[in-house]
Design goal:
Helix content is 72%, strand content 0%. With 88 residues, the protein is mainly α.
Length: 88
């Protein structure tokens, strides 16, 4: 038995995460470039996993960017369909 009556589920917020993902990707890219130039100038071959961490961050950013673009496209199509089916 429930103690409280069920509450209505709110609509999801329509956010734009593309700038956030792009900023994160830019930071990973800058960090990776710093590591590449540091490795080239100092000649240290250790700590290569830091560079791979930057590469993984960029790959995750690309996946998230594609997900965000697809999500926004799906919402736009759903909104267009809802507008087409509403009686005038």
């Amino acid at each position: 038995m429930r103690r409280y009556p069920p509450r209505p589920v709110p609509e999801p917020l329509d956010t734009n995460a593309v700038p956030v993902v792009l900023i994160g990707m830019a930071l990973w890219l800058v960090a990776g470039l710093i590591l590449v130039f540091r490795r080239a100038t100092l000649g240290h071959a250790h700590h290569g996993w830091w560079l791979w961490t930057c590469v993984a961050g960029l790959i995750v950013g690309i996946v998230l960017l594609g997900y965000e673009w697809h999500r926004r496209w799906r919402r736009a199509v759903a909104a267009r369909r809802a507008d087409d089916t509403t009686p005038a």
